[in-house]
Design goal:
Layout lengths: L3 E4 L4 E4 L8 H10 L2 H18 L6 H17 L14
Helix pairs in contact: 2-3
């Protein structure tokens, strides 16, 4: 049976991640409080951000930028600004 978590992004109970996908304290917070669905949404946005901004994951500053955007999206509901991308309306 899937792990249930109270997803802080969707503000509802939902299936959680199978294992911690991100390291450290933030990774633990995501594992404990973010649903699979919300994290999957983030991964799509992350890919767009990396491509749009030509981020290099070997650069600490680029990783920090992405981490800030990830945290804001998952926990505060802040949509990252991706040029030319309009999020679907609900």
């Amino acid at each position: 049976m899937a792990r249930e978590v109270y997803c802080e992004h969707f503000k509802k109970d939902a299936p959680g991640l199978d294992f911690q996908l991100y390291p450290g304290e933030l990774g633990k917070r995501i594992f404990d409080n973010i649903s699979k669905e919300a994290f999957t949404q983030w991964q799509k946005k992350q890919t767009m951000l990396i491509n749009e901004n030509k981020l290099n994951m070997m650069e600490a500053s680029d990783r920090k930028y992405l981490e800030e955007k990830m945290s804001a999206f998952l926990f505060e509901g802040v949509e990252p600004t991706i040029e030319g991308y309009v999020p679907p309306t609900k």
